[in-house]
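Hi both,

Apologies for the delay on this - the queue was longer than expected. I finally got the copper (II) ion-bound model through. Below you'll find the protein sequence and the ligand SMILES exactly as submitted, and right after that the structure tokens for the full complex including the ligand.
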Amino acid sequence: MNFFEKSHALGGLFPQCTMCHMRFRFALVLSFVLFGCGGSSSTTSPQSSQVAQITIENMEFSVPDSVSQTDHIELANNDSVEHNLMFMDESFGVDVAAGKTVALPQLKPGKYSFHCHIHPTMLATLTVS
Ligand SMILES: [Cu+2]
């Protein structure tokens, strides 16, 4: 496709015609604006939240180093016996059956010490930032 054919297809019969050029430029600007709008709407996506998992294996809690208050916190029991996670102040507690995973509520920043009330020697602390 040579220049004349390209101009003909995009703008009009006469590539030298200023009206054709203006129309072509207007179409370019219009499509840029439309694409621009589409792009900006996809960049305003909400903040992403991650999954932070506390695991239980061999009668021990394994806690992630840092958990954000926006994270979805899960408790996964990889043992073959039932466990539990209970805050030391007993404000929250949840049982987790063998091989199961349960969701925990989102937590405000702070340090949360907890234990398994079935096996009181299982102790851990979760830090939420
Ligand atoms: Cu336990």
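Main takeaway for now: Residues 18-43 form the longest helix (26 residues).

I'll put the files on the shared drive as well.

H.
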